[in-house]
Specification:
Blueprint: H1 12-43, H2 85-88, H3 90-103, H4 108-118, E1 124-130, E2 143-147, E3 153-158, E4 168-173, H5 175-178, E5 202-207, E6 213-216, E7 223-225, H6 229-234, H7 236-241, H8 250-259, H9 264-274, H10 292-325, H11 335-347, H12 359-370, H13 389-406, H14 410-439, H15 447-467, H16 469-479, H17 490-498, H18 501-504, H19 508-511, E8 515-516, E9 521-522, H20 542-586, H21 589-599
Antiparallel strand pairs: 1-4, 1-6, 1-7, 2-3, 2-5, 3-4, 5-6, 8-9
Helix pairs in contact: 1-20, 3-4, 3-10, 4-10, 8-15, 9-10, 10-11, 10-14, 10-15, 11-13, 12-14, 13-14, 14-15, 14-17, 15-16, 16-17
């Protein structure tokens, strides 16, 4: 007949809530587990055998010719949905820089710098002066019509908004966006300019909604380019570190943390052009020890491996973040177009011939040195008549991701984007190993080789440093820009790279070894290493596996919640009946009050 107290830890109402809360926590854990499972599947994968991926579909269409159905031309095996001509022609700026370097004269570096800073092919625009000013405001994008130096009509559009009365206008040439070869007006910083597509020096300009207006300008001096290689670095902070919730981008952050500069590529180039040392936190180069002719090598290679390489990454990242920002099928942005811009920068307009200069070309050239070319059956159209496994796989992923972006399957594109970046590092590593091997041989070493070695190293050291600062230091000390003949311990450099392959999510087979084509064998000490672990690679089914896993686990847990809830309610009802019986027997009002307090 004594008063019975209620233990909250065993009361049915409290225990019911405990069981349900526990199951909810298990669901949260399942979400994390499924995500980890997807990550694990991507990171481990199956062991690589020959590992040659399936070939993308082939076509006989040239990248330089519009297809008969009016769709944009393919970029090798990739079919863009929209025209990206004005991005493809960035390789013509690179080609102009290479041509200036090839002259190997006292003006070479100056001409290279002009193209680097002022461009010549992408997004050309004219700055004209109206004699009487605008009679009314016009908006950015307003169409204009004029006459070019060959007396042909030329279409342009306003580059920005202009107020009534303004006299100076910036007008963009529209053929840059509609012609497979880019605009016919090619001036900028080029030594050999092309004027036939440029607005003539004076005349009338017809602006939509406005009467004909009299203008004048100097066609040779006032035609510029809004997109230059230098801009890729000087605008990097805004586009990759301070660009909203999706920033900073992971790969770019590695470079910023290593070099201590947001515009590290621009600073590298400025130091080379001024023949002075860089001022980085890590990875310095002292260009004061070289002459212009040798420094020209780091300029022509740096624009591709430092500037354009990271611009490809920026476009890939931006496409994914814009896709994620879309709340419906109709988006304010066009992520698949931005993705195609990345493909254009990677490939260039000359991807189908021997004048190619971009990352696509680097991967194919290095595969011949390192025995990492794909079988003939998988050769991509264009290029050198053969294809690297890197390019075959990258172009398969380019196409797969574009289709996913069109379906707004944004999360699945993240893993593909990451895998493409991993694959893009392989030719850089191959280039660094090749020149380290050359520099270790006193009989063939030259300062030019050392400059090339330092440039390749500069493009890959931030990623190595993120994995192992000690190994990055070994590589840097062997490959840094220093005019004294280096004492390169090639085996040590090779091992320093190889220790980080797993961290970089690549394998010994991916990188290969330096092959002697004449003797049909690897050079001594330069054979591929052996993969002792399973290949950590992108698994395109990982996300789907994770989703199905979550659905399966989630379904089971939902059933568990229902069963637990029903049982809890039954136990609670039984408990209340016990309490009522005890109250009736003892008249214990305090028991009722205590029970109500616990339940409430």
């Amino acid at each position: 007949n004594t008063t019975q107290s209620i233990n909250p830890s065993t009361h049915p109402s409290i225990m019911c809530r405990f069981h349900v809360t526990t199951i909810l926590l298990l669901i949260a854990g399942a979400v994390g587990t499924s995500g980890s499972a997807a990550s694990s599947a991507r990171m481990t994968g199956e062991t690589r055998n020959d590992g040659v991926p399936p070939s993308p579909s082939k076509t006989e269409e040239s990248v330089r010719r519009l297809q008969s159905d009016g769709t944009p031309p393919k970029i090798s095996a990739y079919q863009p949905d929209t025209n990206v001509f004005d991005y493809l022609v960035m390789d013509l700026d690179v080609a102009a820089i290479n041509a200036a370097a090839a002259r190997n004269d006292e003006d070479s570096v100056y001409d290279m710098e002009d193209v680097y800073r002022e461009g010549g092919h992408s997004q050309p625009y004219a700055i004209i002066t109206l004699r009487n000013g605008l009679p009314q405001p016009i908006a950015a994008g307003t169409a204009c019509l004029g006459v070019d130096t060959d007396s042909e009509s030329v279409r342009l559009y306003a580059r920005k908004n202009y107020a009534q009365g303004e006299k100076q206008l910036e007008l963009v040439y529209d053929d840059a966006n509609t012609s497979p070869g880019g605009s016919k007006c090619q001036v900028g910083g080029l030594l050999k300019i092309r004027m036939e597509g440029c607005l003539r020096n004076e005349g009338d300009i017809y602006i939509t909604g406005v009467d004909a207006l009299d203008y004048f300008y100097d066609a040779e001096l006032e035609n510029y380019n809004a997109r230059t290689i230098s801009d890729f670095s000087t605008t990097a902070r805004a586009s990759m570190a301070q660009c909203g919730n999706s920033c900073p981008y992971e790969e770019y952050t590695k470079f910023v943390e290593y070099y201590g500069r947001y515009d590290y590529a621009e600073q590298w180039m400025n130091a080379a052009l001024d023949l002075r040392p860089t001022e980085f936190e890590n990875g310095d180069a002292d260009w004061s020890k070289y002459d212009d002719l040798n420094v020209a090598e780091t300029i022509r290679q740096g624009v591709v491996y430092l500037h354009i390489w990271m611009k490809v990454v920026e476009r890939l990242e931006r496409a994914v973040s814009d896709c994620s920002d879309c709340l419906s099928i109709i988006c304010p942005a066009n992520p698949e177009n931005i993705w195609s811009q990345a493909v254009a920068y990677y490939s260039g307009s000359q991807v189908a011939n021997e004048n190619s200069t971009m990352l696509y070309y680097l991967a194919d050239i290095r595969c011949g040195t390192f025995e990492t070319c794909a079988p003939d059956s998988d050769t991509l159209e264009g290029g050198q008549g053969w294809s690297s496994v890197v390019n075959v796989e990258i172009f398969r992923l380019f196409s797969e991701a574009k289709d996913l972006l069109n379906r707004r399957s944004c999360l699945e594109v993240v893993a593909i984007k990451n895998r493409i970046i991993e694959l893009m590092r392989i030719p850089l590593i191959q280039g660094a190993l090749r020149y380290a091997h050359i520099n270790a041989n006193d009989q063939i070493y030259t300062e030019k080789h050392q400059v090339e070695s330092a440039t390749f190293a500069a493009a890959i050291l931030p990623a190595i440093h993120k994995c192992s600062p000690d190994d990055a230091k070994i590589i840097y000390q062997a490959m840094k820009a220093d005019s004294e003949a280096p004492k390169v311990d090639y085996p040590a450099v090779k091992r320093a790279f190889e220790r980080n392959y797993e961290c970089l999510n690549i394998t010994c087979a991916d990188v290969g070894g330096i092959y002697d084509q004449e003797n049909n064998e690897y050079l001594p000490g330069a054979a591929p290493c052996s993969d002792s672990t399973t290949r950590r690679k992108f698994d395109r089914d990982a996300v789907r596996i994770a989703v199905f896993t979550f659905v399966g686990i989630g379904g089971a847990l939902v059933v568990a919640i229902i069963v637990s809830y029903v049982k809890c309610k039954k136990d609670e009802a039984d408990s209340k009946r016990e309490i009522e019986m005890m109250q009736a027997a003892n008249g214990d009002s305090e028991l009722k009050l205590e029970e109500n307090a616990v339940i409430s």
